[in-house]
Specification:
This protein has 120 residues and is mainly beta. The protein contains no helices and nine strands. The protein has a single domain, classed as Jelly Rolls. The chain has strands spanning 3-8, 18-19, 29-33, 43-52, 58-64, 73-78, 85-93, 98-103, 109-119.
């Protein structure tokens, strides 16, 4: 029977939001590094949410396990002062894949989230 352990994102301090400071693929911020296991049934189920503290809409790019555009990019335009917007609704990831982010405007997007660490 699988076990679930809820954890903070590895890029978060004490479960707080991670400020997106970079504005391009060369200046990303790490949100989470997935479990090193590559065994089927053992993975991190990642949940991500963002808020935009500015007064303008801002495009946010999540690099999901790879920085190769189109292969792993999740792009969302986060509206101003809209509260928490779902970015990633519990997608699985393992094999030490890294989730990173950058935004069109620095220092106005905060990414919150958690991981359900699932082991067989």
């Amino acid at each position: 029977m699988a076990t679930f352990t809820k954890k903070a994102l590895s890029g978060s301090t004490d479960g707080l939001g991670v400020k997106v400071t970079g504005t391009g693929t060369g200046s990303t911020v790490t949100l989470h590094t997935a479990t090193s296991s590559n065994t089927e049934g053992e993975y991190d189920e990642v949940w991500l949410y963002a808020c935009n503290t500015s007064t303008s809409a801002v495009k946010l790019t999540i690099e999901w396990g790879t920085a190769t555009a189109a292969d792993g990019n999740i792009e969302v335009t986060v509206q101003p002062e809209a509260g928490l917007v779902t970015l990633v609704p519990g997608l699985p990831l393992h094999n030490s894949k890294v989730v990173k982010a950058f935004a069109a405007t620095a220092d106005v997007i905060l990414v919150f989230g958690f991981v359900n660490a699932i082991s067989a």
